[in-house]
Model the fold of this input.
Amino acid sequence: MNLLAKTFLGALLLLSPLVRAEYIRTEGVWQLKPGTQSDVTPAERVSHVLLVMNRASREAEAGDAAAALKDWAVIAEAERGTEAEAVSLIQQARLFTTRGQFENASALINELYERHTSFSGFQQAVQVQFEIGNHYAAGDRRYLGGWFPWFRDPLAAIGAWETAVKLAPHGPLAEECLILSARLALEKDNTPKANEILERLVSDYAFSKHAPEALEMLATLRAKESMGPDWDQVTTIEATDHWRTLADQFPNHPRAKNAAEQIAMLRDRAARARLNLAKFYWLNRNNPEAAKLMANSCRTLSPDSAAAKEAQELLDTIQKDPTPPKSLADKLLGVYPRPKTALDVKPTAVGEDLDSLGFKKEAPKSATDTERR
Done:
């Protein structure tokens, strides 16, 4: 055996006793996983810990949740800081969940998160927190003390799922929690919350299996928000961008089949809004420069749309004669004063003793001998 092989074997022999304890339940019996070492001190206590763990599990299976919770709590208190405590916390959380004591269960999971992030079964805690959210969303009642029914609160599911995401942001349930939260928020007409969750999903989990649905939902929400005044069409452009992202990243997904049609419709809507502004500046504000700016913007947004053709006609009209036709109001009240352009601005006299910027004029002084030096 060469030196490198001997060194590697020696390292394995040295590190093998340092493998953290891991408790597993096989055929209804708790035991230490082979190859792991108990962190219970002294080692003789391991058999007692396993005895209490097996008793608590049998009590839970027999329907005596109160007795099981008591035994698991004893383990957690006696073996604080060990893997046995982590197992106890997750088992208590499961029992509290079955009893409808969702807040108690979440508190234990948070405790586990704070003190046992390296717990080998930590994904189980995330799963329990996920299930708590499912219970809330399904309309299950909380039970105070495990027996007194309380009000249903489906929206509490969003907070429970957000906690699950915090526990394992890169875990397999994070994306599922976000899409479920977004669906529930929309179902309960909480649009701002749905927008927030969907934005997080498409930005942090761009390649998630739920990304196409999130992009479609976000584009639809943005498009609805854009049905406002002509000067406020930012969300129309955002909706267009979401549809384009869906079409570019997931071209073969069923949700992308209407993307081209939606993009064309939204761009036409935004272009039409700019055309309406151009007409407003031209006909109502006697401002051909602003009208031309909005008309050109219309043509840029959707060059092939009907709105772009009307914008070009308006530009041709302004080019021929920059004076808009007079309306009845113009004839009765006078034409709306045209804004001055930069070329129209002339220096304003501010007084003989002040210059054009308003500073006091001073007579030139002759340099003295001292100043010349």
